[in-house]
């Protein structure tokens, strides 16, 4: 084969460039001395990316590769019209996914019970018996139920009594463990939680990879994530199994902790702050967590504030000097983040929330970043103290100088069953739990108008009402007193009297409008704090100018 054949159509050059790119992008192994210091002969290889279970991918041709198309978008120039149309299509697809009705045979149901609550043990037993004995899907029995293995020896659960009560319990009542959820999450088709938001977070902690749909029953304190009433569990479960469900795919974070490795063979001289002979820091992944609510980095028990370096897409964003930092998901926006001054974010918005905890600068405000950004929170080597990090309130670990955490959106969302829809459930939760924007309704005004006609007091329409005679008499007496003060003790002529009469009429006409608040029944409700709805009413007052002038002259 000649060189001309090799270079035909550029195939040989493309192959060479591709091999060079793969070699260039391949991570370099650690030095031999570093591996010896760690006590390992080789570093563990990362696990392969699991195959996407997306139904869109499954309906496409096997030769179709979505990753290749995405890579081509990065390498090739794209017209704006094509880019805009693609963005609109992706938005519409996301909207359809949120409204999609899932119809599947739920053959295996897992029940997660709040630990330490003896009252819920009896409820777990009742719910398990209902699922096992109620015929489903054309069979004479129900579905397979998994309950916590810790309940097997509890007297209230009475496992032996369940075996004697129904023969189906022997084959269709089983027990789950943490190891089973981690190793074989695919055997569960549906999850029921009995508790509050903490029980839902514990379910997310159990399933660090693929999560089955979760139907949470409200048996806790607040219940942002629990929208189903346990009193109607038969109705909810029947609708879910027969009519299908709608799920809210809540975004989770993949948080990877990187530990520093000191390489004694590589010593660099730092010029920062006059320090010298600083060791070269190399980090490697130590552990990873799937987070549903938030990641909290704080100062721990140390007296000093935290000193953290925040990076986004390998670019330095800012230096955090505060008591800590909260990186929250949209689901976790109603948790620690909102207590620290963060915003409420709809769970359908793909975003990362950054909320500082008591920052040392007033200009450090909470912000929202796109989920495409990769965050890194680092503890610099010159920090006065270490930092501590917790994941959904669990797995609290210490970050020493040189350690950092990488935060990226997870490939495994947390699906919760919608009671009505995503938006209705969310607004109902914040209204029920946070009393969002609740206050007494502002009372309206009643406008009292004065008409300078010759007629007596008449009603203008059905919405008008008369002004009482006492109020009219009071206004006349007030005007007369004011006229007397204006006139004084001097004896004026008839012309002056006429001028005063005209002034009197003008002063009467100045009070053209009066305002009052009336309830629906027409009574004065200005002192009523019931907060009920008020009506606008227009009160028209028509005065007889001749009668007023005559009364004034007679009294004179």
Automatic annotation (TrEMBL):
GO biological process, one term: NADP+ biosynthetic process
Chain positions covered by the region annotation Disordered: 1-50, 447-479, 516-556
Composition bias, Basic residues: 539-556
Regions of compositional bias (Acidic residues) in chain numbering: 448-462
Polar residues biased stretches: 1-20
Keyword annotations from UniProtKB, A to Z: Kinase, NAD, NADP, Transferase
GO molecular function, one term: NAD+ kinase activity
Presence of keyword Calcium: no
UniProt cross-references to InterPro entries, sorted A to Z: ATP-NAD_kinase_N, ATP-NAD_kinase_PpnK-typ_C, NAD/diacylglycerol_kinase_sf, NADK
UniProt xrefs under PANTHER family: NAD KINASE
Family: Belongs to the NAD kinase family.
Protein name: NAD+ kinase
């Amino acid at each position: 084969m000649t060189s001309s054949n090799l270079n035909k159509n550029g195939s040989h050059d493309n192959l060479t460039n591709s091999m060079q790119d793969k070699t260039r992008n391949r991570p370099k192994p650690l030095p031999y001395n570093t591996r010896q210091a760690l006590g390992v002969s080789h570093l563990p290889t990362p696990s392969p990316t699991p195959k996407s279970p997306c139904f869109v991918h499954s309906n496409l041709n096997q030769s179709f590769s979505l990753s290749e198309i995405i890579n081509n978008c990065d390498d090739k120039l794209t017209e704006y019209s094509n880019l805009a149309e693609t963005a609109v299509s992706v938005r519409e697809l996301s909207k359809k996914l949120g409204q999609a009705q899932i119809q599947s045979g739920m053959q295996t149901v897992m029940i997660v019970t709040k630990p330490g609550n003896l009252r819920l043990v009896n409820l777990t037993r009742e719910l398990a018996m209902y699922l096992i004995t109620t015929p489903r899907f054309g069979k004479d029995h129900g579905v397979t139920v998994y309950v916590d293995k810790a309940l097997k020896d509890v007297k209230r659960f009475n496992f032996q009594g369940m075996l004697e009560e129904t023969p189906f319990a022997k084959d269709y009542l089983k027990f789950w463990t943490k190891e089973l959820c981690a190793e074989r999450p695919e055997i569960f088709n549906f999850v029921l939680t009995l508790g509050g938001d903490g029980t839902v977070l514990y379910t997310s902690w159990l399933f660090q990879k693929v999560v089955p749909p979760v139907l949470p029953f409200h048996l806790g304190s607040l219940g942002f994530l629990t929208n189903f009433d346990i009193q109607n569990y038969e109705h909810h479960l029947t609708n879910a199994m027969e009519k299908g469900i709608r799920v809210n795919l809540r975004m989770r974070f993949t948080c990877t902790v990187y530990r520093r490795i000191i390489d004694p063979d590589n010593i660099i001289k730092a010029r920062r702050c006059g320090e010298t002979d600083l060791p070269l820091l190399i980090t490697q992944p130590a552990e990873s967590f799937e987070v549903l609510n938030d990641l909290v980095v704080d100062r721990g028990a140390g007296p000093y504030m935290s000193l953290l370096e925040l990076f986004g897409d390998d670019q330095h964003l800012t230096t955090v000097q505060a008591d800590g930092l909260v990186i929250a998901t949209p689901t976790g926006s109603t948790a620690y983040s909102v207590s620290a001054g963060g915003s409420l974010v709809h769970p359908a918005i793909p975003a990362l929330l950054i909320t500082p905890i008591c920052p040392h600068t007033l200009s450090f405000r909470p912000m929202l970043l796109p989920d495409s950004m990769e965050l890194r929170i680092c503890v610099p080597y010159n920090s006065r103290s270490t930092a501590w990090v917790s994941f959904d309130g669990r797995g609290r670990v210490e970050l020493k100088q040189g350690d950092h955490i990488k935060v990226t959106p997870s490939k495994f969302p947390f699906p919760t069953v919608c009671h009505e829809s995503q938006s209705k459930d969310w607004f109902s939760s914040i209204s029920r739990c946070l009393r969002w924007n609740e206050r007494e309704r502002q009372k309206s005004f009643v406008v009292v108008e004065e008409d300078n006609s010759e007629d007596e007091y008449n009603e203008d329409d059905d919405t008008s009402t008369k002004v009482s005679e006492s109020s009219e008499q009071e206004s006349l007496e007030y005007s007369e007193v004011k006229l007397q003060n204006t006139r004084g003790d001097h004896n004026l002529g008839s012309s002056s009297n006429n001028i005063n009469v005209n002034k009197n009429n003008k002063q009467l006409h100045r009070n053209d409008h009066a305002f009052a608040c009336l309830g629906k029944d027409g009574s004065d409700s200005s002192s009523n704090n019931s907060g009920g709805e008020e009506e606008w009413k227009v009160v028209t007052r028509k005065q007889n100018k001749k009668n007023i002038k005559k009364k004034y002259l007679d009294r004179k």
